[in-house]
Amino acid sequence: MKKWIIISVIIVLIGGASAWFLLGKKNQTQNVAFAAQTITAQKGKLEVEVSGSGSVIAITDQDVTAVNTILVVDTVSVISGDTVDKGDTLVTFKNGDVVTAPYDGEITSVSVKSDSGASLGTILLRMEDENEVISPVTRGDSSVSDSLSGGSTGGSSLTADTVSVKEGDAVEAGATLVTFTDGSILQAPVAGTITSLSVASGDSVQNSATVAHITNYSSLQTTISVDELDITKVQVGQAVKITAGAFEDETFEGIVTKVATSGTSSNGVSTFDVTVQITDPKNLKIGMSTEASISIESKEDALYIPVEAVYKSGDEKYVLVPATSDDSTQSTKKVTVETGISNDAYVEIISGLAEGESVQIPSVQSSGNSSRGGMMIPGGGFPSGGGGFPSGNFGGRNGGVAPSGGGQGGN
User: Fold this and answer.
1) If phi over 0 gives left and psi between -120 and 50 gives alpha, with beta otherwise, what is residue 111?
2) Where are the domains of the chain?
3) Buried b (16+ CB within 10 A) or exposed e, 112-131
4) What is this structure's pTM?
5) Beta carbons within 8 Å of 397's beta carbon, 6+ residues apart
6) Residue 205: is it exposed, middle or buried by C-beta count within 10 angstroms (0-12/13-18/19+)?
7) SS3 of the chain: helix, strand, coil, percent, to 5
8) Sign of the dihedral through C-alpha 73, 78, 83, 85
């Protein structure tokens, strides 16, 4: 008997606890109510952007090797149309080397002139032989009877005579960096700053050796990763707004210069690199982190409302407009709309609404006085979560941007 009494007490306690839990749950549920926020349709500039992050790098950042040494032309002894015999002088370089005619023939074209530079393999002119075959004559061509066919200029190494620059020097494209004992010179292929130099007078330099490194600190770019769903919208030439963590209150301008044709996959999602040239880098430095927003589409004087105010049922899109019935009770009416461009924050309304007209955005109002906006789903239903109604700029894959035509009204 005592055993049954104990079991009965346990059952009563479990039942009471369950009832208390369910009652509390019911009360908690009753403390959540659906409310509505009223927003007015506004006009202004609506922008659609694709955003990404990256870092600042130099557009020009390259090694300079001795393989591209040149000889400077002193005189060109022929013109187009001249007839020459094998061995006749065609071109003389300032170091004294001479290029002669490899066979009897006619000069059909001349590609060099006095004071121009010629690297190994450069076409100097073209000749036509007795069989009417036209062939190029190049510096270093093995068929050419001159000192350039062998010797120091055709060999595997050179000896530096004069080094004209030092680390830290700014150079223009074409500036002489090194003069070699054979009379050839090494020029800067691009403009920039000499960040490293590995040759001195008297050094023996292999043709393939890196002699210097040039970086252009005034010509910068950033590369960002763009989601595969947005990459089709990005094109070369589009304007870009860039911000940097080191300059919070400053915006830099840029332009898309390259869009990758192949992407990188991670966790089933592919991203594509987009290269953006910074048109005026100002005080930006290589390695600084950046955020870039590519302007995909924009429209002036667009009528817009928040995206969560638009519902979809099948092919129909509609909004809920506040209405007052005959007995003064508040209700809403369904108004079909046609939409235009949109970003993560706002959507353009082409027809169905007028500027200043109010629409409702449903939200869930809890007993804690905090609300969360319900996001639209097909059929006009509401999911259990959602983001709060925005008061300004919006992030996200499409870089939502608050229109510039004035703030949204609400109550």
Assistant:
1) alpha
2) 51-60+218-297, 62-217
3) beeeebbbbebebbbbeeee
4) 0.62
5) 50, 51, 227, 229, 230, 344
6) buried
7) 10, 50, 40
8) negative
pLDDT tens for each residue of 81-92: 999 999 999 999
If one counts every other C-beta atom within 10 angstroms of the C-beta of residue 137, the result is: 23
pLDDT 10s digits, 299-337: 999 999 999 999 999 999 999 998 876 666 778 889 999
Q: Do domains 51-60+218-297 and 62-217 have the same CATH topology?
A: no
Write down the residue that tokens 């080191």 correspond to.
246
Q: What is the DSSP string of 350-378?
A: EES--TT-EEEEEEEEPTTS-EEEPPP-B
Q: Under 8 Å CB-to-CB from 245, ≥6 apart: which residues?
A: 288, 289, 290
CATH number (2.40.30.170, 3.40.50.720, 3.40.50.10950, 1.20.1600.10) of 51-60+218-297 reads 2.40.30.170
How far from 192 is each of 38, 287, 303, 325, CA to CA, in Å? Answer: 58, 17, 49, 74
pLDDT digits (tens, 9 = 90+) for 165-218: 999 999 999 999 999 998 899 999 999 999 999 999 999 998 888 999 999 999
Coil, helix or strand for 78?
coil
Q: What is the mean pLDDT of the chain?
A: 80
Q: What is the three-class DSSP state of 231?
A: helix
With residue 22 as reference, give the H or E element that holds it. helix 2-30
Fold of 62-217: OB fold (Dihydrolipoamide Acetyltransferase, E2P) (2.40.50)
